[in-house]
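Hey L., structure's done. Input below.
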Amino acid sequence: MRNINLRYVEETFDEKGLLKNLKINCPEDFNFGYDIVDDIAVNDPDRRALVWQHENGEERTFTFAEIKRMSDKTANYLTSKGIQKGDFVMLVLKHSYQFWYISVALHKIGAVVVPATYMLKPHDIEYRIKAANLKAAIVTIQTDVADSFDNTPNVSDLACKFIVGGQREGWFDFDTEVEEASEEWERVPTNYRDNFLMYFTSGTSGNPKMALHDYTYPLGHILLAKHWHQVDPDGLHWSVADTGWAKNAWGKIYGQWIMEAAVFVYEYDKFEPSDILDIIEKQKITTFCCPPTMFRLYMNAGLEGHDLSSLKNCCIAGEALNPDTYNAWYKATGLKLMEAFGQSESTVIIGTLKGMTPKPGSMGKPSPQFKVELHDDRGMPCPVGVEGEIVVSIDPRIPGIFNEYYKDPEKTAFTLRDGWHHTGDIAWMDEDGYFWYSGRNDDIIKSSGYRISPFEIESVLLEHPGVLECAVTGVPDPVRGQLVKATIILRDGYEGTEELKKELQTYVKKNTAPYKYPRVIDFVKELPKSISGKVKRVDIRKKDIELSKNN
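Output:
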């Protein structure tokens, strides 16, 4: 793979040895499409790259040779429609297998891939077209997102609209037309500092930022694929993630393919825990990753009757892990859930990596790939047990950290300052070097002089059999500054009575420091969430602030 030094990708994980040997010798013209995908396609053409299954039972398997062939045809087709190096192209493809060779094609062209969720509505699309100067959109027909595009006021600003999986008036028929394109494609020169991929971050307030990565970004996923996911080159890795999110980049293309491992994709409309378990058994999934909530749902659905013996490693990310879920899964499968933390602006920054013993609820330790510290408000390192902001050194620059927020120098300068990437996430470190997540800067509750992590209280509440989902926030209070409030969705069979409120408050007092218990509890049918599914605590806070003003 063209002089890319992978010395640190060893079978035996040793933190000190890994840190000492950590080096990536990246050629200036490195391009994932040519130097990884095509390299494997030429030297091991029949190696399995992608296994795709539709919920209707349809299946397709792509080798690396087939990904090369289809990406070359796609590159020829897209350039014939005017897509050029530097153009921003949005992909809204849900779980469509076309995403993989379209992405590789755009990388080869030198265009910028802009993945997005199929849940976008017209106002979301309008903002994205304008903010990113989008040249084109390639959209699945499997959802109503194409309707949202056609109902967007500035959709005419797009030079091209491509529909995947069918035909639609006013759109290019991608699947039919790409088959007519040539398979012969000549390498387009790119530089490793060129714009490569951009994510609209799933912010919980305001318009999403645009995190822009360069061509070194795929190399930032090697360690997570090898030592967090622990992929097997002869196995099959499954990360349950829609192609619109950064978790898809983490788990379903870059690091896995650099490790020459195949990835699995399941196209479905509704998440059914038993279906996921059936597929693990049928497809003989070897490594598996999804949010902790899904593991809770698997346990609730019951593992009886499912053969999960093919699984060798299971990972989680996206939210705090409930210890009960960890213990139940371990008891049932013998597998420890390996947690990690990162952002759309990065790859995995902190993780429970190969050879480490997980501490349920902890994110793990800083990845040897990065220099990670916790800083206080003065920019000084925090001692053990003291909360601080997670910061990552960018001097020198390590592959995996974004370059900038596109067209927003002010936010870029604020986030990338003084030689550090400031994540905006708060955590504390224990005496063993494990990091424990507290929340976003804005989420930390300040009550009677205490700083209280909403995640810690949420984790305790989720252990109660009556709690399905919850969000903990601060409510304005003239005496304490803020009161701890829990907004809760109950499981079937439970009613939001005063007796249950007292029971939950007592439960929290018994399982964490008493001052952290929620003095206010609100039972609801649903929680406000962002387009990525993250709870919008800011909406709960705003509503409570308005109520306090009116009272």
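The mean pLDDT is 90. The longest strand covers residues 467-477.

-- N.
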